[in-house]
Amino acid sequence: MLVLTIRTDKPESELGMFEDARQLHYERWQAHRQLAETINKKIEEILKTQSKSRHDIQAIVVFKGPGSFTGLRIGITVANTLADSLRIPIVSANGDDWVQTGISRLLATENERIALPEYGGEPNITQPKH
Questions:
Q1: 69-86 and 35-49 are packed helices; what angle lies between their axes, rounded to 10 degrees?
Q2: Rounded-to-integer distance, Cα 53 and Cα 44, Å
Q3: Among 27, 43, 76, 129, which residue's Cβ finds the most Cβ atoms within 10 Å?
Q4: With the C-alpha atoms ordered 86, 89, 94, 97, is the resulting torsion angle positive or negative?
Q5: How confident is the model at residue 123 (pLDDT cuts 50, 70, 90)?
Q6: What whole-number distance in Å separates Cα of residue 24 and Cα of residue 110?
């Protein structure tokens, strides 16, 4: 099973490509405020290094948090959109072993269908000015 992994909870984002639990490629880059502009380009670059296309991806593991609201929102949205459009399973995970946990869940045929973030706290919503 070809698995794409996505982590976007901090300024340094991470993408990986795995064949089951075997790592084929893993990349970190300083995405910071350019995450929305760079994530899809980085996914395409990784696929190209493996001579694959988006249609070859068979499952997705996404880091669910806690972490940056905007970073998690962008990464999880990309993951959910890819999973839905490709009709492939998606799972979310957290912790130091999030990749291994997620891949194990996929190999056990789990599918969340929609990954949801865990921000690590209540939102800080400012009151509107009158």
A1: 50
A2: 8
A3: 76
A4: negative
A5: low
A6: 22
